Amino acid sequence: MPHFNHFIHKSVPDFIDEARVRDVLKKVDVNRDGKLDKKELREAARQLGALNGAWRAFRALKHADANNDGLISEEEQEELVKYLLTKYKTT
Ligand SMILES: [Ca+2]
Ligand SMILES: [Ca+2]
């Protein structure tokens, strides 16, 4: 029986770091328009979401959606990333 112990770890870290957030936001932009719609954000929330607060964080969508068009543009994503990082910094 091989030892897979080192593979058994939580699939998500206990914290959100900037690289991870950006990575996820990039990945969920399935139609590659550089903007995130609700569906894409929901997927992002799912991927970051095992983290308890991430769901709540994505309520910050409203906060990030500066022009209220329901899409998070690249500039707005900058805000979203910053917001998430501020919110989930553990220290
Ligand atoms: Ca998109
Ligand atoms: Ca917008």
TrEMBL record:
Pfam families in UniProt: EF-hand_7
Annotated ranges, domain EF-hand: 16-51
Record's keyword annotation contains Calcium: yes
One GO MF term attached to the UniProt entry: calcium ion binding
Protein keywords: Calcium
InterPro entries, per the entry: EF-hand-dom_pair, EF_Hand_1_Ca_BS, EF_hand_dom
Name used for this protein in its record: Calcium-binding EF-hand family protein
